[in-house]
Each structure stands twice: as C-alpha cells, then as structure tokens.
Amino acid sequence: MNPNEDLIEAALQVQLNSRSKYSGFSVGCAIRLAAGDVYTGCNIESVSFGLSNCAERVAIGVLISAGVDPSLVSEILVVGPDLVDCTPCGACRQVLSELVPHATIWFRHGGQWVSRNVLDLMPDALEASLKTFE
Ligand code: THU
Questions:
Q1: Burial degree of 34 (CB within 10 A; 0-12, 13-18, 19+)
Q2: Cα-flanking dihedrals φ and ψ of residue 22, to 5°?
Q3: 124: left (phi over 0), alpha (psi -120 to 50) or beta
Q4: Quick one: the chain helix, strand, coil %, rounded to 5?
Q5: What's the CA-to-centroid distance between 18 and ligand 1, angstroms?
Q6: Which residues contact residue 52 at a Cβ distance below 8 angstroms, ignoring those fewer than 6 apart?
Q7: Which of 21, 86, 100, 105 could be 76's S-S partner, Cβ–Cβ 3.0 to 4.6 Å?
Q8: Distance (Å) from CA 88 to ligand 1 centroid
Q9: Which CA distances in Å does 47 have to 19, 20, 22?
Q10: Residue numbers annotated as active site
Q11: Ligand 1 centre from 131 Cα, in Å?
Q12: What pLDDT tens digit does each residue of the chain (134 aa) get?
C-alpha cells in the first residue's frame, strides 16, 4: 500500500526548506491529524553536527507548539532526497514512541513505501511512565 499523494506532497514541499549543508541530505516530514490537518517540518543541521534536528522531531515540535494534542495524530510521513531510502533514526523513534505511540509512520525502505506502527519501530522503549517521572 502507498500513502496518500497529498501527504507526500506536503513532505516534499517542506523538504525544500531543509538546512542540511553538512550532510547534503534534505528531509521533509508531514504529520496528519485524524481530522485531516497537516503539520510539517524539515531537518535543520548545525556545524556542531550532533546538535542537528531531524525532520520528524521538528514536525512534532511544530505541532505541539501550535497547541495540538499529539494523541490526535493519525499518520506521519518522512521523505529523503529524491525519495531515496530514509528510515527514522533511533532518537526520533524514542521521541515518537513517547508522543505518538498509536500513530502510523510511512517511510521509504528498500525502494518502496513502508508503513509501521510507531511502537513497532521501538520495542521496549524507555517509557515516560517510569516511576521517577510520575
Ligand atoms: N534525518 C532526518 O531528518 N530524518 C530521518 O528520518 C533520517 C535522517 C536527517 C538527519 C541529518 O540532518 C540528515 O538527515 C542526515 O542523516
């Protein structure tokens, strides 16, 4: 199965804003709510490479900053340059598993679209319900 064209288009559009001169790898992410609204983000890199932000975490930050409850998210889509394979990194898997565990995520892998449940990408994730944070 493939994602809807409009979500791909939204991710490709925001990908144009990517600041990725260190890796040369521009990424766009589009997040759709069950109600249909779409929020987007691109990767933003720093000369201190480790401070770079992935498109997925930027997009979820945009959505949360806009006051949207992340439990309303239904699907997330991520695209790399020219639709090359681009799977979410471990840091994004952790963050998404905390904020949108129920969501479906679309990405390119093996030259095709793959959809997964966010939690399936991060088995045994560190949980925000740990006693220390109650
Ligand atoms: N990147 C993302 O934004 N999302 C992904 O799913 C994979 C990687 C970014 C991080 C870095 O700016 C560049 O792509 C190369 O790894």
A1: exposed
A2: -85, -40
A3: left
A4: 35, 25, 40
A5: 10
A6: 22, 23, 43, 44, 45, 46
A7: 105
A8: 8
A9: 11, 10, 7
A10: 56
A11: 32
A12: 899 999 999 999 999 999 999 999 999 999 999 999 999 999 999 999 999 999 999 999 999 999 999 999 999 999 999 999 999 999 999 999 999 999 999 999 999 999 999 999 999 998 866 666 66
Residues in the chain: 134
How far apart (Å, rounded) are the C-alpha atoms in residues 81 and 61? 22
Reading the block at residue 66, the tokens are 């806009």
Tokens 């766009």 label which residue?
28
Q: Which residues' Cβ are closer than 6 Å to ligand 1?
A: 20, 23, 25, 27, 43, 45, 52, 54-56, 78, 86, 88-89, 92
Tokens of 16: 């144009």
Q: What pTM, to 2 d.p., does this model score?
A: 0.96
